[in-house]
Amino acid sequence: MPINLGNKQIVLTGGSGFLGSHIKERLIEHGAKPQRIFIPRSRHLDLRNREDCRRLMNIKQPDIVIHAAGFVGGIGLNREQPAKMTYDNLIMGVELIEASYRARVEKLVVIGTICSYPKLTPVPFKEDNLWNGYPEETNAPYGLAKKMLLVQGQAYRQQYGLNFIYLLPVNLYGPGDNFNPESSHVIPALIKKVADAKRLNQGHLELWGTGNASREFLYVEDAAEAIVLATQNYDGAEPVNIGAGFEITIRELAHKICKIMDFNGTMNWNHTKPDGQPRRCLDVSRAEKEFGFKAKTNFEEGLRKTIDWYMRQNQKTA
Predict the structure, then answer these.
(1) Active site residue 134
(2) How many helices (H) and strands (E) does the chain have?
(3) Per-residue model confidence as pLDDT tens digits over 121-131
(4) Which of 101, 107, 262, 291 could pair covalently with 233 via S-S, beta carbons 3.0-4.6 A apart?
């Protein structure tokens, strides 16, 4: 039987962030009581600190913990701050898993990352291939830190009986995404580049890499729905991919965004910049089988919503 969220106390880390805010909305839509969802804020609780994690559990006494917090960003940020990527993501998860076990939570849901997969994983990525090689170098510190949480969670399940599940979402996008050029992922970075070029009447774009790498993208509302469905319905030990099941090259993506935004300039690809992982596309059959998730949002529709949201924000601050 699915978990009845209406009578559960829930701790949602990262709940004020891009993905976390949508998870909160979906939890409420699935019956959770808003007043019983607690979102820890870093200015009050440092999840890297053992005592803060234990204090969180002692005060809130959650039935369910969803760990969506993390230090994340695009290729540039991963290259500039690999040590912080490793430490923050690893230690937050390690301490939260330990504290959840000690507090005897009913269920712990940890959000991993597609960056944990080996660089040359056969496409589509199957969960069984997760350990068949080393991650793509620019993402490896982040990907390996997150993957270690899968090992820890499975160990705690085996030794202590902790009901731990681990989800692997693909690249997310949507309204509310991070558009800071210092740390953004590819879709918001491209949207901002095109918007800036139009505003400045520039006839060209400067883009990273060759454009030949491929990615899969999942609309953030769909990702949040998948996480809540898994929280309610999945209790397995094995990790589960969360995606849309398609891939598109970065070059094709750039053309699509330019077309939607009515930009007809040229694209200058800087081959001295990294492409990142050569291809990314998930096998999403396990998620559909285990908890009935299938992405609903058409990619172009999702892009238009994201672009419209960004342009509205720009108008407000102009």
Answers:
(1) no
(2) 10, 12
(3) 999 999 999 99
(4) 291
H or E segment and range at residue 287 = helix 285-291
Sheet with 64-67, strands from edge to edge, namely 37-38, 10-13, 64-67, 107-111, 164-169, 240-242
Residue with tokens 């993501």: 89
Buried-exposed string 132-141: b where 16+ CB fall within 10 A, e elsewhere: eeebbebbbb
R_g of the chain, CA atoms, integer Å: 19
Token pair of 294 as six digits = 């299938």
Structural domains of the chain in order of their starting residue, each with its CATH number: 5-173+218-245+280-296 (3.40.50.720)
- Tokens encoding 202: 């520039």
* The pairing of beta strand 248-249 with beta strand 214-215: antiparallel
**3-class secondary structure for 130-198?**
CCCCCECHHHHHHHHHHHHHHHHHHHHHHHHCCCEEEEEECEEECCCCCCCCCCCCHHHHHHHHHHHHH
**11 token code pair:** 């701790």
Alpha-carbon distance of 278 to 257, in angstroms, equals 21
What confidence tens digit (pLDDT) does each residue in 169-195 have? 999 999 999 898 877 889 999 999 999
Q: Are 257 and 190 in contact (CB under 8 A)?
A: yes
Catalytic residue among 101, 117, 142, 166: 142
pTM: 0.93
